[in-house]
Design brief:
Elements lengths: L1 E9 L3 E4 L2 E4 L3 E6 L6 H8 L7 E6 L2 E2 L5 H5 L2 E4 L11 H6 L14 H13 L15 H14 L4 E5 L7 H17 L3 E5 L3 H7 L2 E5 L6 E5 L5 H8 L13
Parallel strand pairs: 4-9, 4-10, 7-8, 8-9
Antiparallel strand pairs: 1-2, 1-3, 1-5, 5-6, 10-11
Length: 247
């Protein structure tokens, strides 16, 4: 569970305020907002990279900025928008890297670690990819492998930054369906940032929409929200502020 307590997100200047929001286990959330509004900064704040300017964020009973990196890595897994693949690294070995927070100083995996890895590979039905070179996987296969790597980390929270940004439509749909499935089946809190409104409305349990004017987050129910509702809040027609790259 993630509890935002009126956290102010930004660097030298505030970008947005979260308000009082609780993200629960077993739910798939999507963070939506225009470029430059602070989506990536919010994820970086959850990852401990960027401090809050005011307010606080709690992960269960822990203030997220008062835990060690080791503790955080056992509570939050992160999936970047793109993984390029590495020659001579099999998919199974790449997924196994997610066990790093639990290994000794030498990084050696034991039998129980490999059981976790193989269990996730089976759950995601990617046995056929297990021994393939990651550099030979398609973009969609690499993203699913990255989600598998996050799952073997066995954290209660998974964060994803634009996980479908470089995928075609069928793979975007497959990834969204998979994220909802693992959130529900594994009882995880899954939070992604995305611009893919139609698929997010279809698959997300909740939308966290950043109002482009108020710069505050509104929580909406996915299947009870229309695309027009989201656009009116996040991308109003009369907002002519120049769009910047997301920060």
């Amino acid at each position: 569970m993630i509890h935002f307590k009126h956290a102010v997100i930004g660097y030298s200047k505030p970008l947005l305020e979260t308000g009082e929001i609780v993200l629960n286990s077993g739910m798939f959330y999507t963070l939506i907002g225009k470029n430059g509004i602070g989506k990536t900064t919010l994820l970086n704040t959850l990852l401990g990279i960027t401090p809050t300017l005011n307010g606080s964020i709690w992960l269960s009973e822990h203030n997220i900025h008062r835990i060690s990196n080791q503790q955080r890595s056992q509570k939050i897994a992160f999936v970047p928008s793109r993984f390029e693949g590495v020659q001579h690294l099999t998919t199974r070995d790449y997924i196994a890297m997610g066990r790093a927070p639990y290994t000794n100083v030498f990084g050696k995996l034991n039998a129980s670690d490999w059981e976790v890895v193989d269990s996730v590979i089976t759950q995601l039905r990617i046995e056929a990819l297990a021994h393939a070179d990651t550099s030979e996987l398609s973009d969609g296969e690499r993203q699913i492998a990255s989600i598998a790597k996050a799952l073997v980390q066995q954290t209660p929270v998974i964060l994803l930054d634009e996980p479908t940004a470089f995928l075609d439509y069928s793979n975007r749909m497959a990834v969204q369906k998979l994220l909802r499935e693992v959130a529900h089946h594994n009882q995880l809190c899954v939070l992604q940032s995305s611009h893919d409104l139609e698929l997010c409305l279809e698959f997300s349990d909740r939308l966290l929409v950043i109002d482009s004017r108020a710069r505050k987050i509104t929580e909406l129910v996915g299947n009870e929200t229309t695309k027009a509702d989201v656009i009116a809040r996040a991308f109003p027609e009369n907002d002519h502020e120049e769009l910047k790259e997301d920060v």
